[in-house]
Protein: TetR/AcrR family transcriptional regulator
Amino acid sequence: MAKAAKFDRQEVIDLATNLYWKKGFNATSMRNLQDEIDMRPGSIYAAFGNKDGLFIETLRNYTDKGISLIHQYEQEKDSPLEALKDFVKYQVITTKEDAPNSMCMLTKTINELTSDNQELLDITKAHIEEISQEFAKLIEQSKELGEINSEKSALELAKYLQVQIAGLRTFAKIDGVECNLDKMINECFDHYPFNA
Amino acid sequence: MAKAAKFDRQEVIDLATNLYWKKGFNATSMRNLQDEIDMRPGSIYAAFGNKDGLFIETLRNYTDKGISLIHQYEQEKDSPLEALKDFVKYQVITTKEDAPNSMCMLTKTINELTSDNQELLDITKAHIEEISQEFAKLIEQSKELGEINSEKSALELAKYLQVQIAGLRTFAKIDGVECNLDKMINECFDHYPFNA
DNA sequence: AACGTAATTGAACGACCGTTCAATAATTAT
DNA sequence: ATAATTATTGAACGGTCGTTCAATTACGTT
Structure:
């Protein structure tokens, strides 16, 4: 044994996540990151490899936090459907003002990157699929409880929800104030394909 | 009078549009553009001002082409609703493989840029609103023909459609092949809020 | 207290960034 | 033919990019 790293890894990753999330991968420079996380280039490269490596860790961090939040809602709420609905509202409404960026970091990355960064793209896609699976689990439970009356599979409904979230968050950034997001989200759950 | 510019302005803007669309604003360098449109820096700056100026022209070009296409469908198709539906399918399905980028250039820009480029952001938002208006016009006509039975206003339905397009295009880029986009789009028009 | 090991530092690298501008070329008007 | 005007060229600017690495520092072990 020798020196132990003095920086708090989780704290650093959180700061990096917020900066990458705010500015996007391309617009975030290593020097921006150095300032934000207060580390010198050598330390960053020793700890995370390179710009991509750090970004990959922040993606993992972002997705883990999202999934944790789903599980938290799952425990707090009365039904899996309520948990899901509240999570969607959190993603679209709360995040709109409280987060580093009103967009989902994963869809933002999907939007920004091209095949020039195929690895990052593939990882991002896989994370979105992970969240699909979490949604599908809740929907499956909800179906068994008879809360949902739909001929569509849980995974289809999960992906339908992700379409709505992606669309609503984009729309919310454009339209600013004058739209009732809460109502629009309720309507997603009240009508087809969630309920015929 | 003296020399006339020898380059074809429309052709140059088309090439620039495709490159900006493909790579995004930040990842497209002036040198990338120089190669793509075969002009030297001095000529580009004389003709378009700077990187932002050229981008603004490509945004205008992109939006104009979109609106023209809507009008073209409007003339070709039997009903305004058919025109609208076909335009949506074109945006989501055809564009997915034939275009420089499967994403809409406008929403991609909204996703990418921050307040560091407020002017570009505002212009982009305004263009999306323009397209809202075009959608609303078709929907209004369609309502008068009795094709749509909805308590929502034409503009609300137009924005609902834009949410669906933004969501579906993101989703389509993630999910790759295994989803029936055509069916999903039909369902948007067949159910609430388009038809109760 | 001295040693070995690993974390940290920060200057420096070559490449590329957006942009400028003096020099040159090409066209029209005289 | 000459002059006037404007488009075009491409080298060059200062700055920033992602990244490297020799030197230094700080800690656990002996």
In short: Residues 1-7, 39-43, 46-47 of chain B lie near DNA strand D (CB under 10 Å from a C1').
